[in-house]
Amino acid sequence: MDKAELHRQVIEQLHAELARAEQAALTAHETATHAENVAENKYDTLGLEAAYLASGQARRVAQLQQTLMTWRQLRPRPFDSDQGIQLGALVQTVDEHNREQWLFLGPPGASMKLQHAGEQVQVLGSTAPLGLALLGKRPGDEVSLQVGAAGSSLEVLSAL
């Protein structure tokens, strides 16, 4: 597996998501400011609703810009067993049902699934519960998570 290629795919997906969010924000802004959406009475809330939507879309654009900036700054390095799993690590785990999974750990905000080298790779942020649990772990370590009332356990098979 090539971490540099995964990193490139994450940035590419974030760019695409940002472009969609910018277009949605522009459309919402145009709707909110269009002359036909001026309230005619106190019950006519279309303009107000569009303004709320435009505000939310603008916040989403800002979040994506921040996420993209932090992912661009990430420089995935080879796994260092002295430090354990850190940002930029590509981790293979197995659960209690012998299901293997590849995880690419990075900064927050880019949860997505990628296809690489014939495998599905889950991208997760370091502030996600699983991301936090993986930090500092090494191959052979067990990671336990409490998800609602149920708990689950993963073993770290490898880290790159």
UniProtKB/TrEMBL annotation:
Keywords for the protein's UniProt record, in alphabetical order: Coiled coil, Elongation factor, Protein biosynthesis
Coiled coil: 4-31
Domain of life: Bacteria
GO molecular function terms listed in the Swiss-Prot or TrEMBL record: translation elongation factor activity
Name of this protein: Transcription elongation factor, GreA/GreB, C-term
